[in-house]
C-alpha cells in the first residue's frame, strides 16, 4: 500500500483555535480522499504557537534549534502541506509569515499545498488569494486551486448557503489528495551532493 | 594540538557598568590580551578583520607586526583575512612581510566574512563572493610560490612579469587555513590545496559543523594529501569559566543577554545547550571540548572567543589564565591520549614546512634580482620600461 505524509501547519494563536479546527478539517478531508485512492496518509500537525519563541530566536541568531529544527525537517520532507493562518490586518498573521521567513527558501519547491484561513467576516475571504497565495507561489510551491476561508459565521452554517463550509473543505481536500497522490517527496536535496569540484569552480569563474 | 584565542574586536558597552571603551582603548586592550595570552603559554592569537563599527580590527598585519616584536612564542594569525575584498597582491606582500618579521611565527586564515554593504566599499560585489575567493586565492598562491608571475583573471588588472616582495621566509609560503561556516565550496577549496579548514562552530549545532568538516576530510583524501583523518582541522569555540558553575552563570548572564549577536534572543541555557558556548566551571569546559573530537575527529587547533560582549579587560585576562592553567593542560592530555600516532597533533610549523620543501627539491628563493625601471619615470618613459621589463626579469 502506498503511503504519504501530510504536514499541517496552523498559525492560530488561541486554544482552542478556529484556525486549528479548520486545519484539522482540511487534513481530515485530504486523508479521506487519499484513502479512497488506496493511499494511507500520516498526518503530523504543527501549531506554530508552540515554536513561536524559537521562530524569533532563529531570526536573531540565524539557526534553528530544538523543536523548530524538527518542524522544519518535517515540513521539508512532507508529501503535502496544509497551511492555515488567521487573517490579521488584511493578510496572514505575523507568526505565519515569520515561520515562512525562517524556513529554507527551497523547502517548498514543488510541494503540494492547500491553503486555509480564518477571519471574523466573509469580507476577508479574498485575503487568501491576494496575499497568502502569492507568498506560496513565490516559494514555487504547487498551490491547490481551491483555498478555504472560514468566517466565524461559517461554523454555524450561516454564511454560505449555496456552497457551505463542509462542501468547500471536501473539494479542497480532493484537490490536495490528487496532487499528493501524483507526487512523492524525494526529500531535501543533499547540500553536499552537488558541490562543484574545485576544477569546475575554477573553470566557471 | 594548538589552543588559542581569537578576537572579533567588537566595541560593546559593558552592561554591568554602562561604560563603553573608545576605539583607542579597545585596540590597546586587544594588544594586551594577545601579549597576556603569549605569557600565559597559549599557542595562538588570532584577530578578525572588520571594516565597520562596532569593530576596530581593520588592519591585522599592523597589529600582528607589533605583536610579533612584543611576544615570544605565540603563533599570530588572522580569523579571518578577507580574500574577497582585499587585493591578493597586497595580501601576498603584507603577509610575507609579517612572516619575515615574526620569523615564521604566523599563519593566516582566509574567509569571505563580509556582510553585503562591505563589498562595494572595496569595489566588489557580494554575489561574486565564492568566485572572488577562488580566483584571488589562486593568484595569492602563485605570488608566493612563483617569483615572476604573468597573470590574467576576471577580478583585477592583469600582471606582467610581477614579483611580490619580500619573498616568503625561506622561500616557503605561510600556512593557510580556510574558514567557512556554511559554504561547502570553501571546504572543497581548502581540500584541493591541502590547506587547513577552520569551522567557526560557535553559533551552530554540532550536527552542522560535523557534516562540513567531514566533507572537507573526504575531499582532502580525494585530492591525495593524506587520509581523511589526517586533514588539518580547526574549530572555534567560546566559554566563560569561574570556579563554580553558579558563579560563572551569574557573572556572564548580563553579557550574554545583551551581546550584539545573540542578546535578547534565546536564553543562555538554550543557547549553551544548542551551541558550543559553555558557561560554567573549568571542568565543564573541559568535558564539553574534549567531546568535540568525537564529532569531528582529532583536530589540530581550537580557538576560543573570550573578549567580546563588553567583558572588561581584567575579566578577559582572568579567562586567559583559567584557560591556560586549568583547561588547556587537561584538554591537551585528553586529546593526546587518544590521538593515533599518524594523525598530526598540530598544523605544520614553518620549520616543518621548510624541511618538507627542501625534501621536495625546492630551493630557497630569498630575493629576486631586478632593476627598478619604474620609480621616477614619466608616463612617456613607461613604454620603454615595459619593453625592457621582460629582459630585466630574464623572460
UniProtKB/TrEMBL annotation, chain A:
GO terms for molecular function: oxidoreductase activity. Coiled coil: none annotated. NCBIfam families: LLM_duo_CE1759. Residues 6-154 form the NADPH-dependent FMN reductase-like domain. This is FMN reductase. The lineage of its organism: Bacteria, Bacillati, Actinomycetota, Actinomycetes, Micrococcales. InterPro entries: CE1759_FMN_reduct (IPR023932), Flavoprotein-like_sf (IPR029039), FMN_Rdtase-like_dom (IPR005025), NAD(P)H-dep_FMN_reductase (IPR051814). Pfam families: FMN_red. It comes from Georgenia muralis. Keywords: Flavoprotein, FMN, Oxidoreductase.
From TrEMBL, chain B:
InterPro entries: Bact_Lucif_Oxidored, LLM_FMN-dep_put, Luciferase-like_dom, Luciferase-like_sf. CDD domains: Tetrahydromethanopterin_reductase. It comes from the Bacteria. It holds the Pfam family Bac_luciferase. GO terms for molecular function: monooxygenase activity; oxidoreductase activity, acting on paired donors, with incorporation or reduction of molecular oxygen. Residues 336-395 are annotated as: Disordered. Keywords: Monooxygenase, Oxidoreductase. Residues 369-380 have a biased composition (Basic and acidic residues). GO terms for cellular component: cytosol. Residues 1-297 form the Luciferase-like domain. This is Putative FMN-dependent luciferase-like monooxygenase. It comes from Georgenia muralis.
Amino acid at each position: 500500500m502506498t503511503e504519504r505524509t501530510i504536514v499541517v501547519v496552523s498559525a492560530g494563536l488561541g486554544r482552542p483555535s478556529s484556525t486549528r479546527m479548520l486545519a484539522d478539517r482540511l487534513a481530515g478531508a485530504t486523508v479521506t480522499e487519499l484513502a479512497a485512492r488506496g493511499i494511507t496518509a500520516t498526518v503530523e500537525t504543527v501549531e506554530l504557537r508552540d515554536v513561536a519563541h524559537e521562530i524569533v530566536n532563529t531570526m536573531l541568531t540565524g539557526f534553528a534549534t530544538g523543536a523548530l529544527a524538527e518542524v522544519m525537517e518535517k515540513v521539508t520532507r512532507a508529501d503535502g502541506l496544509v497551511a492555515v493562518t488567521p487573517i490579521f490586518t488584511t493578510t496572514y498573521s505575523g507568526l505565519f509569515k515569520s515561520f515562512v521567513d525562517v524556513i529554507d527558501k527551497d523547502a517548498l519547491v514543488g510541494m503540494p499545498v492547500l491553503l486555509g484561513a480564518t477571519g471574523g467576516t466573509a469580507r476577508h475571504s479574498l485575503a487568501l488569494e491576494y496575499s497568502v497565495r502569492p507568498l506560496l507561489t513565490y516559494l514555487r510551491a504547487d498551490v491547490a486551486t481551491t483555498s478555504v476561508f472560514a468566517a466565524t459565521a461559517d461554523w454555524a452554517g450561516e454564511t454560505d448557503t449555496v456552497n457551505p463550509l463542509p462542501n468547500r473543505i471536501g473539494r479542497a481536500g480532493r484537490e490536495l489528495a490528487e496532487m499528493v497522490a501524483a507526487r512523492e517527496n524525494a526529500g531535501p536535496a543533499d547540500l553536499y551532493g552537488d558541490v562543484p569540484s574545485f576544477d569546475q569552480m575554477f573553470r566557471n569563474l | 594540538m594548538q589552543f588559542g584565542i581569537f578576537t572579533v574586536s567588537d566595541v560593546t558597552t559593558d552592561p554591568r557598568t554602562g561604560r563603553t571603551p573608545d576605539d583607542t582603548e579597545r585596540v590597546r586592550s586587544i594588544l594586551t590580551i594577545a601579549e597576556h595570552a603569549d605569557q600565559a603559554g597559549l599557542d595562538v592569537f588570532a584577530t578578525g578583520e572588520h571594516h565597520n563599527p562596532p569593530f576596530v580590527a581593520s588592519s591585522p598585519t599592523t597589529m600582528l607586526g607589533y605583536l610579533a616584536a612584543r611576544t615570544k612564542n605565540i603563533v599570530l594569525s588572522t580569523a579571518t583575512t578577507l580574500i574577497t575584498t582585499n587585493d591578493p597582491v597586497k595580501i601576498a606582500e603584507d603577509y610575507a612581510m609579517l612572516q619575515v618579521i615574526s620569523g615564521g611565527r604566523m599563519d593566516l586564515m582566509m574567509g569571505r566574512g563580509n556582510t553585503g554593504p562591505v563589498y562595494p566599499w572595496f569595489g566588489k560585489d557580494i554575489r561574486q563572493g565564492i568566485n572572488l575567493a577562488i580566483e584571488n586565492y589562486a593568484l595569492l598562491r602563485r605570488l608566493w610560490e612563483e617569483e615572476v608571475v604573468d597573470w590574467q583573471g576576471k577580478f583585477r588588472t592583469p600582471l606582467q612579469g610581477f614579483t611580490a616582495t619580500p619573498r616568503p621566509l625561506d622561500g616557503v609560503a605561510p600556512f593557510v587555513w580556510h574558514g567557512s561556516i556554511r559554504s561547502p565550496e570553501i571546504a572543497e577549496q581548502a581540500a584541493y590545496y591541502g590547506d587547513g579548514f577552520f569551522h567557526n562552530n560557535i553559533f551552530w549545532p554540532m550536527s552542522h559543523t560535523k557534516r562540513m568538516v567531514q566533507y572537507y576530510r573526504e575531499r582532502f583524501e580525494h585530492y591525495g594529501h593524506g587520509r581523511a583523518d589526517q586533514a588539518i582541522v580547526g574549530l572555534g569555540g567560546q566559554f566563560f569559566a569561574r570556579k563554580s558553575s553558579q558563579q560563572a552563570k551569574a557573572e556572564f548572564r548580563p553579557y550574554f543577554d545583551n551581546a550584539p549577536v545573540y542578546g535578547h534572543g534565546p536564553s543562555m541555557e538554550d543557547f549553551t545547550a544548542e551551541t558550543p558556548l559553555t558557561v560554567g566551571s573549568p571542568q565543564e569546559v573541559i568535558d564539553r571540548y574534549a567531546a568535540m573530537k568525537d564529532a569531528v575527529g582529532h583536530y589540530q587547533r581550537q580557538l576560543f572567543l573570550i573578549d567580546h560582549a563588553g567583558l572588561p579587560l581584567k575579566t578577559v585576562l582572568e579567562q586567559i589564565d583559567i584557560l591556560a592553567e586549568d583547561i588547556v593542560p587537561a584538554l591537551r592530555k585528553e586529546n593526546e591520549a587518544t590521538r593515533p600516532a599518524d594523525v598530526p597533533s598540530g598544523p605544520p610549523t614553518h620549520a616543518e614546512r621548510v624541511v618538507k620543501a627542501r625534501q621536495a627539491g625546492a630551493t630557497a628563493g630569498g630575493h629576486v634580482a631586478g632593476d627598478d625601471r619604474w620609480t621616477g619615470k614619466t608616463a612617456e618613459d613607461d613604454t620603454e620600461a615595459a619593453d625592457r621589463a621582460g629582459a630585466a626579469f630574464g623572460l
